[in-house]
Specification:
about 750 residues, mainly alpha, Serine Threonine Protein Phosphatase 5, Tetratricopeptide repeat, about 0% strand
Length: about 750
């Protein structure tokens, strides 16, 4: 089907393997790179996208996935990031259902399998991109460059920048997108296998390619770019279009575009079909998502908020150069590049301008060669390499809309295809000129081995949040979010002193970092350093007046300082900004209980349980308040209602058992006490109150037994020692009477 062209394999000193074995080798090596991430935890964004995403749970209707964003928020919400990836969320949901809960192993295994599958498909993709599209007489596609296609596939499989996509579960979106992206490309190539009817192309496979492109976009936004790349491939490989010649004819308004190759073999028709399909997909997506832009803040992408067009342009180009550097030298990798990690370039005197110059020098050189070279083979490979490098990156480039990051390693997954094409082609050119080809091959093999080791090291860092966050300290020491996440991880483990240090550094690096202020204020509140806690939380709500969590925490601090009116006002402000805020209603109820406003307290706690039926603390406080105020019947009714909703909560069993005991329903009370003790056998109060029940009931031996257990667990348990002594005296009196 295609004319004979120079073969890249001719001068390359590299392994040659049968297609099956080449794919097995690629699969095995890609597996080895990331295998140690299989039993990692849920880390970083996994919490929001998976653990806190209600769309994964069986009780959420499947239809909701099509109206929610990747994080489970309604697309119509002002806070939605508009990341519409329903098919990726669907795979998370299937993972969750098969695992029977949030067990990360299954999620990680699927990611590893996806990357291995994609790497294997790359052997076929690179054989087409580097060697052209040719079929045997039997209609079987031929791999004319088995050496270079294997090398390019290995380069892709072991690239360390892919670690975030594979080891981070949220990277599933990029993996699924890449899978259908490649299937769309291979499907489009199948359209040109000459069939028995002698047609130039198969309409069926073109339409299949468009559908697979749509599926790729439903996994992640970048997927839509495959339709453009299919058009580029069609023009360059199928129609042998000379881009420079075509542009010249177009500029000179030459009507003989047929000679330039535009209309030959149905190219214009297929491009129209691809464009129509892409436009239809984008329109449907727009109808579902609405027109509102995503809500991003300055800390997410500071360059996009710069007033000067010059500053924005310079920094965007600097970001491009950093992405290119990550492809060339993927040694400094970080889970987050925002919040001061990359300070803005504000003048041409900044030495970092050199990186922009280097990037454009290389790009312009490659583009000139891709357009002007007399070697059609070189023009084709360089244009395809640049196309696969640049076009999939366009949605992340800030050119069409603001994105919510500075640099994200995951978005380089698809563009790395272009990098691998250019690297492999460069290697073939060097091999052609080199006298000692084996030394060059050993150098490339060394690069592959280094990348394998780097992948293994980096994927081990993604196994836990502690390792991941700490690994970023040396890469982005100016990133406030890195210090914040290290601090949060330490706080979750109970190391508050160390957490304070990192939170303070986060606030120092970014004095407007309200989340760091909020978390630091919380720790200081728990350490009873209320004055500084109030100052931090007050500053946080001053910077971000709609920060509901900070308002609630400020209310808790004010309540502790016995400034009840201010605390009440803070709670209501929090509820104003987040109407469905059960924890705030719970704390408001505690305030009202402290003020002896019992009805208001009960109403607040009832609101908390309506918004969050499993809010155990709110239920417990209602039962205890009703018990303490002598409303035993109402307390019993609330306790039974709570246990129907949360049947395994031992604290609710304990509270209801106390109420039933006071109502002289001893048998039912005993059963609940015993059930609570079975669930939490080391709670001294459970044994102590059961002993009181037996004491009242007249089961003195059992009362004695549980008093002793309670005192053994907590010798200072209030009231238990006194009750135990009373019981002992009573038993002694009974023994004396029995002896008399």
């Amino acid at each position: 089907m295609a004319q004979t062209e120079p073969n890249l394999d001719h001068d390359v000193s590299w392994f040659i393997l049968p297609s099956y074995w080449a794919k097995m080798v690629v699969a095995l090596i890609s597996f080895l790179c990331f295998a140690n991430s299989y039993d990692g935890d849920f880390v970083f964004d996994d919490s929001e996208a998976i653990i806190n995403n209600k769309d994964l749970r069986a009780e959420t209707p499947l239809g909701d996935l099509w109206h929610h964003d990747f994080w489970g928020s309604k697309l119509s919400s002002n806070t939605s990031h508009k990341s519409y990836r329903p098919l990726t969320v669907l795979t998370f949901r299937i993972n969750y259902l098969f695992a029977g809960g949030f067990y990360p192993v299954g999620f990680h295994v699927i990611n590893i399998i996806l990357h291995c599958t994609i790497s294997v498909l790359m052997v076929d993709v690179f054989s087409i991109l580097l060697g052209g599209l040719q079929f045997s007489n039997k209609g079987r596609r031929l791999n004319l460059v088995p050496k270079t296609s294997l090398l390019a596939a290995l380069l892709f499989a072991v690239h360390p920048v892919h670690t975030e996509c594979v080891a981070g579960i949220v990277g599933r979106a990029d993996l699924l997108c890449a899978l259908f992206f490649l299937l769309s490309f291979l499907g489009y190539c199948k359209a040109f296998r000459e069939n028995k009817e002698g047609h130039n192309f198969s309409m069926f496979w073109v339409l299949v390619s468009v559908i697979l492109g749509a599926i790729a976009m439903l996994c992640k936004e970048q997927g839509i770019t495959i339709l453009g790349l299919n058009a580029v491939f069609d023009a360059l490989v199928i129609n042998k279009l000379n881009v420079l010649e075509f542009i010249q004819r177009l500029l000179h308004k030459d009507k003989s575009l047929e000679k330039a190759g535009l209309l030959r073999k149905g190219l214009l028709f297929r491009i129209t079909l691809l464009m129509s399909g892409g436009a239809s997909i984008l329109y449907i997506r727009w109808r579902i998502m609405g027109t509102g832009p995503p809500a991003f803040t300055e800390v997410d992408n500071p360059a996009s908020f710069a007033d000067s067009l010059f500053v924005r342009a310079i920094n965007y180009n600097y970001y491009y150069s950093l992405n290119a550097w990550l492809l060339l030298c993927p040694w400094w990798l970080c889970f987050d590049w925002s919040m001061g990690c990359i300070p803005l370039i504000k003048s041409v005197s900044d030495w970092r301008i050199i990186a922009l110059a280097a990037l454009w020098f290389c790009l312009i050189g490659l583009i000139c060669q891709a357009l002007c070279s007399e070697d059609s083979h070189k023009r084709r490979i360089l244009t395809l390499g640049l196309g696969f490098l640049i076009i999939p990156f366009l949605p992340a480039s800030n050119l069409f809309f603001r994105v919510g990051f500075v640099i994200a390693e995951r978005v380089i997954y698809l563009p790395s295809i272009g990098y691998c094409i250019l690297f492999t082609y460069g290697f073939s050119l060097l091999s052609k000129q080199a006298k000692k080809k084996k030394i060059l091959a050993v150098a490339v093999l060394g690069i592959l081995l280094i990348n394998v080791m780097r992948c293994a090291l980096r994927s081990s860092q993604w196994r836990s949040e502690e390792q991941l966050f700490r690994s970023a300290l040396s890469v982005c020491p100016l990133n406030a979010k890195v210090h914040y996440n290290v601090g949060k991880n330490l706080a979750d483990k109970g190391n508050q002193s160390a957490a304070i240090k990192y939170y303070r550094e986060a606030v120092r690096l970014n004095p407007k970092y309200v989340h760091a202020m909020n978390n630091l204020g919380n720790i200081l509140k728990e350490r009873n350093e209320l004055q500084e806690a109030e100052e931090l939380l007050s500053l946080a709500v001053q910077i971000q007046p709609d920060f509901a969590a900070a308002w609630m925490n400020l209310g808790i601090v004010q309540n502790s300082l016995r400034r009840f009116e201010e605390a009440e006002q803070s709670y209501w402000t929090a509820i104003k900004h987040r109407k469905k805020y059960p924890d705030c209603y719970y704390n408001l109820g505690r305030l009202y209980a402290d003020l002896n406003r019992h009805i208001d307290a009960l109403n607040a706690w009832r609101n908390a349980t309506v918004l969050k039926p499993e809010h155990s603390l709110a239920w417990n406080n209602m039962i205890i308040l009703l018990d303490n105020t002598g409303n035993l019947a109402q307390a019993e009714a609330v306790g039974r209602e709570a246990l129907e909703l949360i049947p395994n909560d031992h604290s609710l069993m304990f509270s209801l058992a106390n109420v039933l005991g006071k109502s002289q329903k001893y048998k039912e009370s005993e059963a609940l006490f015993l059930k609570a003790i079975k669930a939490n056998p080391n709670a001294a109060s459970y044994h102590g109150n059961l002993a009181v029940l037996y004491h009242r009931w007249g089961n003195l031996d059992l009362a004695k037994k549980h008093y002793e257990v309670s005192l053994k667990l907590d010798p200072m348990a209030p009231g238990t020692k006194e009750n135990y002594n009373l019981l002992r005296r009573k038993l002694e009196q009974l023994q004396k009477k029995g002896g008399a």
